[in-house]
Write a structure and sequence with these properties.
Layout (H helix, E strand, L loop, with lengths): L2 E12 L2 E13 L4 E5 L6 H8 L7 E6 L2 E2 L5 H10 L1 E5 L10 H6 L9 H14 L15 H14 L4 E5 L7 H16 L3 E5 L3 H4 L4 E6 L2 E4 L1
Parallel strand pairs: 3-8, 3-9, 6-7, 7-8
Antiparallel strand pairs: 1-2, 1-4, 4-5, 9-10
Helix pairs in contact: 4-5, 5-6
The protein binds adenosine-5'-triphosphate and magnesium ion.
Amino acid sequence: MMLELQDIYKSYALGAVRVEVLNGVNLRVDAGEFVSVIGSSGCGKSTLMHIIGFLDTPTSGEYVFEGRKTAAFMDEELCQIRNRKIGFVFQQFHLLPRLSALENICLPLVYRNQPEATNEKIARQVLDRVGMAGREMFRPGELSGGQQQRIAIARALAASPSLILADEPTGALDSQTGQEIMNLFLELNREGITVLIITHDPKIAGQCKRVVRMQDGTLREA
Ligand SMILES: Nc1ncnc2c1ncn2[C@@H]1O[C@H](COP(=O)(O)OP(=O)(O)OP(=O)(O)O)[C@@H](O)[C@H]1O
Ligand SMILES: [Mg+2]
């Protein structure tokens, strides 16, 4: 088992008002799965992904990652998991505009105590993996949206994660480019990486082995 959410609640305090976003979410994802999360805008999909990716914590409930209860993790462990086990991909790519493609891909590796040449070698490998060999020195602004997303996926891959979390990764792309990005995720999943993808696009969700729908703060198999 990769991860399990048990009765997860999440609410935000906005002044005197509490906004309940997640109301008892249960989800189990096995290693090697490809899951898509669908649901209307504002229903809490990104909130859920942030919790799964340790970018946010639940108000209550238990989150078990690779067999371990995460509530007891120390900050250092959380950083390690975020950095080494999980790769993030976002709708707007979130690349640093002043850095080259290669430097962007190296970012998750710079905290590691290893020679720069090692990082660069890894970065070149994943750049090649996503079909962007030759674009090492391009900056994000010199690349198309689809190419930028490939670089963002390469950055996610640099840490050789076991889980990729993608929040509407095709949302800013035309349908053909979006499909190419989806094909890349499908390939990575075939190579053994667990993928969880949030999408509004039924065509994208339809290609996933498993679809879960978020509604009224809970998840249901769709
Ligand atoms: N930091 C925050 N503080 C207060 N409320 C928040 C915060 N983050 C999210 N919310 C609220 O939680 C709800 C769910 O937001 P979330 O971003 O998870 O939705 P979503 O399903 O990802 O929507 P979309 O499909 O539009 O991206 C929204 O009502 C939002 O206002
Ligand atoms: Mg969202």
